[in-house]
Amino acid sequence: MNESSDRDNVIRVGFGADGKLTRTASLEPAPSQPAPPRSDPRAGLYTVAEVARLFGYRPSRLRYWHRSGLLGPSARVAGRNYYTFQDLVGVRAAKGLLKQGVPLQQVRRSVESLREAFPKTTRPLSELRVLADGRTVLVQDDAGTYEPTTGQAVLDFRIDGLESDVIRLLHFDHDDRSRAYEHYLEGCRFDEDEQTYDQAEQAYKKALSLDPTLSNALTNLGNLEYRREQLEPAEHYYRRALECDPEQPEALYNLGFLHFERDEVEEAIVSFRAALKSDPSFADAHFNLAMALEEQNERAAARPHWEQYLALEPEGSWADIAHKHLQKPPPR
């Protein structure tokens, strides 16, 4: 491969003996910290994996609902999607409607009709009083109860206590999430020193026993396995993290690293691009994506990523490498 000496430095980023260097010098990605659980569930933000566990769904079903426009996470923080409390109420309402036998297509059509009827209502399943009679979806406002696609008035078959149900679910889940978070932080402290890697592993696994959706713990377990030169277990943990949180940039980035080490450059490019889609400010992903594109002789495609890396990290030895690539004459 081209420029092997540069690449040898790149592939050790964040996992090898140089992991104690500063982030700029080693390109070590700082693991994103999961937000600590809040005492008031109405103020919390929730990942798709957490919501799926709360309601007994597979994450793929919620992602399908989101893609199809039925309902999905309405909050976006640092480039990632989160469910709000109101979104959870919408999920609870949809689950209740489906349980009563309302076909999913009918739920979707009704939600679309509700959005047309109430332009200011972005989450009609949670902001309006949604009812069902086992065959269709109904809505109630100050004017009465009616079927939204026809406007025909109907009798009131309420789905009561949606918010109370969601609060009860969240309070039941809160203690485990809080303890999981504490074990996760303990693991972060231990994995700073090679002598305490085993304690870090135990702490992360305790966290996961309480909250199996804590994708950050899975990613850090993968990092521990990488440092032990156990690449297959490392990849296993990264993929498990992505099953819980498909948008986690660190897991996507680290998976790209494994592909790069195996000379699977095309796969590495896919993973690095996915990491940047989740977090466009991830400087290390820009750097390594540029390196991978250079390996494929796609210098024009690599150039904006060198430039973006320098905008984010203008100084350091890796910035010097980026400058050298930008100074090369264009290919003929």
Query: Which ranges are low-confidence, i.e. pLDDT below 50, for 5 or more consecutive residues?
Result: 1-32, 152-160
Q: Please trace the helix and strand order, writing H or E for each element.
A: HHHHEEHHHEEEEHHHHHHHHH
The overall strand count is 6
The chain-level mean pLDDT equals 75
Largest sheet: number of strands, sense, barrel closure: 4 strands, antiparallel
Bin the helical content: 55-70%
Distance between the termini: 20 Å
As a whole number of angstroms, the C-alpha radius of gyration is 24 Å
CATH superfamily of the largest domain: Tetratricopeptide repeat domain
Which CATH top level class of the largest domain fits?
Mainly Alpha
Q: What class do helices, strands and sheet pairing give?
A: alpha+beta
Helix count? 16
Explained architecture:
It is a single chain. The chain has 332 residues and is α+β, with helices and mostly antiparallel strands. The protein has 2 domains: 4-36 and 173-327, Serine Threonine Protein Phosphatase 5, Tetratricopeptide repeat; 41-165, Multidrug-efflux Transporter Regulator, Chain: A, Domain 2, CATH 1.10.1660. It is built from 16 helices and 6 strands. The protein has helices spanning 4-11, 23-26, 48-55, 59-68, 85-99, 104-117, 124-127, 162-190, 197-210, 215-227, 231-244, 249-261, 265-278, 283-295, 299-312, 317-327; strands spanning 75-77, 80-82, 129-132, 137-141, 144-147, 152-153. It has a 4-stranded antiparallel beta sheet. The protein has a two-stranded antiparallel ribbon with strand order 1-2. The longest helix is centred in the middle third of the chain and has 29 residues, at 162-190. The two termini are 20 Å apart.
